[in-house]
Amino acid sequence: MSTLRLCLFLFLMLGAVGAGVRAEDGVWMRGGGHASVKAFVAAGRAFLPATTPGSDLAGLFAVPEMGEVDRGKPVPAKSVQECTELWANEECALVLAVASPPTVATRSRVGVLFLLRRQEGLWRIADLRRFSATGKESLIEAEQTAFAGTGYALGREGMRPVVTVKQWHGGRGYAYGMSSSYTIAGWKLVRMEPE
User: Fold this and answer.
1) What is the mean pLDDT of the chain?
2) Phi, psi of 149 (to 5 degrees)
3) pTM given for the model
4) What DSSP string runs through the chain?
């Protein structure tokens, strides 16, 4: 009887551990899959980088401390404050996730632009780009900046989607903004340069 109990206990424990690392439960993994883009966004909003063990994406939402104490020590964000679908079609999607690591010296923001690809019925991370901003006025935002006319669709007929990411740094007398635009080429995010 005790062997049966031990087997039942091990079975239940393995099931609980397995449930804790599924992407659908909020643990983002590069190899994880989601049933829809909305499920990926919902998992992003529930993601806790500082306290989620086993996620290979948690480190993307950390910045080094810039103060005198613990200078250079990585400070992970406690949560993802924003996770937004910027564009999607039936094959791929662009999503921006933004977090604020609790640095002591100054305010910090981290953003990650995800390219999702639909494979075997699940949405998976195909590529990503990380952005960071520091200072009182730090901000990271993105918007779709390419549009198709009537009868056309982005992602088809050579009309690639374009997303522009804006970063704001500084504050207290000196703040500046930067931006860069990205599109999709061969399941990779490619930075666009002026022609």
Assistant:
1) 82
2) -75, 180
3) 0.81
4) -HHHHHHHHHHHHHHHHHHHT-GGGT---TT--BSSHHHHHHHHHH--TTT-TT-TTGGGGEEE--SSTTTT-EEE-SSEEEEEEEEE-SSEEEEEEEE----SSS-EEEEEEEEEEEETTEEEEEEEEEEEEESTT-EEEEEE-----TT--TTBTTB--EEEEEEEEEETTEEEEEEEEEEEETTEEEE----
- Pairwise CA distance, residues 53 & 59, whole Å: 11
Polymer length of the chain: 195
Among 111, 40, 116, smallest CA distance to 82 is for 111
105 closest CA partner among 159, 139, 144, 64: 64
Q: Strand 174-185 relative to strand 80-88: parallel, antiparallel, unpaired?
A: unpaired
**pLDDT > 60? residue 2:** no
Cβ contacts of 154 within 8 Å, gap of 6 or more = 87, 89, 146, 147, 148, 160, 161
Structure tokens at 46: 């529930």
Residue 175: how many CB atoms within 10 A of its CB? Answer: 14
CB 167 within 8 A of CB 131: yes
Closest CA relative to residue 82, chosen from 93, 98, 95, 94:
98
* Nearest alpha-carbon partner for 22 in 55, 50, 58: 55
More confident residue, 194 or 43: 43
